[in-house]
């Protein structure tokens, strides 16, 4: 009996020691939302708009599971999300577990937003960004009319990342893998999230941090089916197989510098489809540059310039001589000014003016159309 | 005699209004006796989380917008508002948690003295070397 009691005590002690080593923490729940009011001047095609909008609400669940292991879940709700009214969108943005022995090397497993340029991972963290409307390809709430997920990788499933010290500088690295965008090729089934192709997204970012300077280059490679069926409209014979799972490359570069009071940051993204067909193109280009200044510890002002250039391929029956495929280039240029005022650690007020210049050009037909509008917005970003 | 009194009064006034030196203090358990500026910045941005003996680095901050806090972060080359952004970014990305911010320098001294692996800062005049070890004295001129 005594031996059994001793054994039980020993086992109990072992379990206690094991539990003690797990460093398990309580579940933390936190999040933020951004509420805005926007006034948009009318154009030839669209009427004037005045609208309140709960742009975004993110809800995080975080728990340290054991020493070096952390789980993180991020739910995101966009544009006054209401399933009963069929408004907005609700997404599971992230759900990953991370192993980190030290910040120099970490591995994330699960659904995540991968490292790409400077803003991709934090594009939706409204409390740390001064913008009401973010540089366009990062403005998730615009995804209904800008193909934001074509410009930047939205999700990956395994990522190794960290930094290597080099004297006073640090070399950041990240490498990841995920699904290509057209993950289900079974046309009569709804998208299930299951990859039926043998293609993957692979990507990486390599960066350098030294004092107040941060620079990096990024790249991804995956395959897209956006050209499927294009052989039917081409004026020459091209095998249909040429337009299935067309390789796509995203190239990015980022630069940011901050001194004591001011910051400058810029990014470039080029999206290239390796379709080898000059008659059609859906290539894309984006860049932005922001200059900002801390007027006080709480008040930040900035000026920014964004450009998105998207190629579209259109079938024009009014083309001279015969119906023809034409490539239209649509530029959206946005010079913008704004301020953000951090009332306290939890509440930030923002104001922004943007002049939106939309220009569509079909070079082959010498057609050019312009459409401009002004966008005024104020917002409150609340972290809870 | 009048000149001596005036000189003395001037020196006294200057000393009273001279900015205090900032001391970087650590718990006696930490395996170092000095710290470089770049390493200090790494602690406060979360780039280094372990001491050389694998003990976790516990970073302690001051809550109020005090002169000491302003000069500490100025020495690191960052405004305290910029540091807040860095911590918030790490927190919202699931990458790290902001340091505990305490109300008074006495609280910082007590917390650092009683927490294994802790590091913090306060006015040099408030250091009690019985409780903590001083890793660095930031001269007033270096944090202007």
Task: Kindly summarize this structure in a few lines.
Chain A has 384 residues and is mainly beta.
Describe this entry's structure for a reader.
The complex is a heterodimer of chains A (384) and B (144). With 384 residues, chain A is mainly beta. Chain A has helices at residues 2-21, 148-151; strands spanning 28-40, 49-66, 69-82, 87-102, 105-112, 156-166, 169-179, 200-210, 213-224, 246-258, 262-273, 284-294, 299-316, 324-342, 347-362, 367-383. In chain A, strands 1-2-3-4-5-6-7-8-9-10-11-12-13-14-15-16 form a 16-stranded antiparallel barrel. Chain A is globular, with a radius of gyration of 25 Å. With 144 residues, chain B is of the alpha/beta class. Chain B has one domain (19-143): D-Maltodextrin-Binding Protein, domain 2. Chain B has helices at 2-17, 37-45, 67-75, 80-92, 105-114, and strands at residues 22-26, 58-62, 100-102, 118-123, 133-138. In chain B, strands 3-2-4-1-5 form a 5-stranded mixed sheet, with helices on both faces. The longest helix of chain B is centred in the first third of the chain and has 16 residues, at 2-17. Residues 10-17 of chain B have low confidence and may be disordered. Chain A binds chain B through residues 30, 32, 60, 62, 70, 72, 74, 94, 96, 98, 102-103, 121-122, 125, 127-128, 163, 168, 170, 211-212, 258, 260-261, 294, 297-298, 342, 345, 383, and chain B through 38, 46-50, 65, 74, 77-82, 84-85, 88-89, 91-94.
